Amino acid sequence: MAKILVVEDNEINRDMMVRRLERRGYLIVTALDGQQGIDLTRSEKPDLVLMDMSLPILDGWEATRRIKNDPNMKEIPVVGLTAHAMVGDREKALKAGCDDYATKPVEFEKLIELINRLIAA
Question: 86 falls in which pLDDT band (50, 70, 90)?
């Protein structure tokens, strides 16, 4: 069973994502801010991280950079999630180290395909 870390500060979005992923058979760990996301990536070693980019304490851009710059975590795929679908955001997410990027509201079936592709890689 694959373990996914969901880093999301919005309770409604987080709970909905967790429920939907658990129904698909994933083991879910959650973090509420970027620093907690880094700490749990280090301690839990998830198979994949779903990283909201607009987070308190430490935003998702910087949290992803720190994860990808750590030799013990850099191989863990990170998918950036944001409601701010601005031109250049995908490139910004990939430059920060995200392995891929999805906009909110998330098209869940496409997200599942993306998760499965990145975990299998």
Answer: confident
Residues 6+ apart with CB under 8 A from 92: 61
- Peptide bond preceding 71 in cis form (omega within 30 of 0): no
Each residue's pLDDT tens digit, 55-75: 999 999 999 999 999 999 999
| Statement: residue 33 has pLDDT above 70 | yes
Range of the domain at 41: 3-120
Q: What is the CATH number of the domain that holds 30?
A: 3.40.50.2300
Number of domains in the chain: 1
CB-facing half-sphere around the CA of 81: CA atoms within 13 A: 26
